[in-house]
Amino acid sequence: MSTVTMLRARRDDGVREKFARSAASPGTAASLGTAKFADWLAGRRLAHHFRVERVPFAQLDGWSFAPDTGNLAHRSGRFFTIEGISAETGTAPFPYWEQPIIRQPEVGILGLLAREFDGVLHFLMQAKMEPGNRNLLQLSPTVQATRSNYTKVHRGADVKYIDHFVRAGRGRVLADVLQSEHGAWFLGKSNRNMIVETDEDVALDDDFCWLTLGQIGALLRRDNVVNMDARTVLACVPTGRADEGALHSDLGLRSWFAGVRARQDVRVTRKPLARVADWVRGPSGIEREDGRYFRVVGVSVEADSREVGGWSQPLIEPRGTGVTGFLTRRFGGVPHLLVHARMEAGLLDTVELAPTVQYTPGNYAHLAGGLRPPFLDGVLAAEPARVRYEAVHSEEGGRFLNAESRYLFVEADESEAPLRPPPDYCWATPAQLNELVQHSRYVNVQARTLLAVLNSGAVTL
């Protein structure tokens, strides 16, 4: 008796069409009206009690410095630790440095639940409090949970809607990829970025709302509304943009990137936090002697909308607002982005594709001439007519305090961004980055924010 083997299509282009329709939609009767969003978010803030207070390390409940290493860890042995690393690159302007870093080896889930209403894909978004956000409450994915959260190490309430992402057969997977987090502040951290479509009726919790991709794009034009975890998932949306061609073939782009990775000679070594050079631990902070980059602080938190109503934890607080942007040009009528193969000590492969510029300017104010970061001064001096997109977005509010970056797309010409850029830079189309982001450890978290802006239609280049 013969057996018939059924083969599946390797790619479903209908998925791309679903996202394109959603990006073009300003909303439907099923979604929360964009004009009503600010009032809805303010109402969710008033409906709950939130408090975040800075406290000395001695007042962090359950956290302590290990007597042998000085590492800052929780008594449960879970969640995360603050440890130290040394990084040796051998290249100017920073051939060697040491720093504290967050080590959180567990993989979390960042999940968007999607459903069609009136033929348009909607996303279930959450008004979620994070202690590090300057305005506390921002729009997050349906599920934003570490493994410790959804396995209830903290013995708190269940994570709402988690079954759609951890139980097989609950829906149709539209996107699913492991992506890195901030490589400057996390050591080897990644999350599973997922979009799952359901046909089930979904009970709508008060802190959740349905929005189209186009509505989220409109909100991405506002400061500090859509959080980092939502942005990284939206970057993984397979888009319907046509790619008329590119300066480099897809293989050529990957080959250039593989070459950059291969010639990087980076040595990253874990070391006890107590022996990290140039950093000083005080009662309420761990910081560099020169005051640059960031410091580690402690906070006490109350939030009755979270799985646990109160807790305390350390956070990384950067010094200053970052500037993160792509320089853009059109070649043959096709928009291109100047990507940077950027080394960051905490990345598993040390190098990922980043925006043209990704710096906190104050950290480089002491450098002059050729030691200044490439393209930074040009972006800082860009006249408004060349800025196609600009918004301030918060970074990960669960681990970073008041971490914000000014995100931009800036039009450039040959004098500002040459056709043949420096060796660690390359021109790529948005469609090429969209293909690469379907795979792990190609596109860094800052570039994914700007890709989310494009995917949602917040700007057209």
Describe the protein.
The protein has helices at 13-24, 37-46, 147-150, 163-166, 213-219, 228-235, 250-263, 376-380, 430-436, 445-455, and strands spanning 50-55, 63-65, 72-74, 81-88, 96-103, 108-117, 120-129, 137-140, 143-145, 172-180, 186-187, 190-197, 208-212, 267-271, 279-281, 286-288, 294-303, 310-318, 322-331, 334-343, 351-354, 357-359, 387-394, 404-411, 425-428. With 461 residues, the protein is α+β, with helices and mostly antiparallel strands. Among the domains are: 13-49 and 106-235, Nucleoside Triphosphate Pyrophosphohydrolase (Alpha-Beta Complex); 250-267 and 320-455, EvaA sugar 2,3-dehydratase subunit (Nucleoside Triphosphate Pyrophosphohydrolase), CATH 3.90.79. Strands 6, 7, 8, 9, 10, 12 and 13 form a seven-stranded mixed β-sheet that branches. Strands 19, 20, 21, 22, 23, 24 and 25 form a seven-stranded mixed β-sheet that branches. Strands 2, 3, 4, 5, 11 and 14 form a six-stranded mixed β-sheet that branches. The relative contact order is 0.18. The mean pLDDT is 94. This is NDP-hexose 2,3-dehydratase family protein. Residues 35-237, 253-454 form the dTDP-4-dehydro-6-deoxy-alpha-D-glucopyranose 2,3-dehydratase domain. Pfam families: Hexose_dehydrat. It comes from Streptomyces johnsoniae.
Determine and state the CATH class of the domain at 13-49 and 106-235.
Alpha Beta
Average pLDDT level? 94
What is the CATH topology descriptor of the domain at 13-49 and 106-235? Nucleoside Triphosphate Pyrophosphohydrolase
Number of strands: 25
Distance between the termini: 58 Å
Oligomer: single chain
Principal-axes shape call: globular
Biggest sheet details: 7 strands, mixed
Instruction: Please state the structural category.
Output: alpha+beta
Count of separate DSSP helical elements: 10
The CATH superfamily title of the domain at 13-49 and 106-235: EvaA sugar 2,3-dehydratase subunit
- Gyration radius over CA: 22 Å
Uncertain segments are: none
Strand-residue fraction?
25-35%
Q: Into which percent range does the helicity of residues fall?
A: 10-25%
CATH architectural label of the domain at 13-49 and 106-235: Alpha-Beta Complex
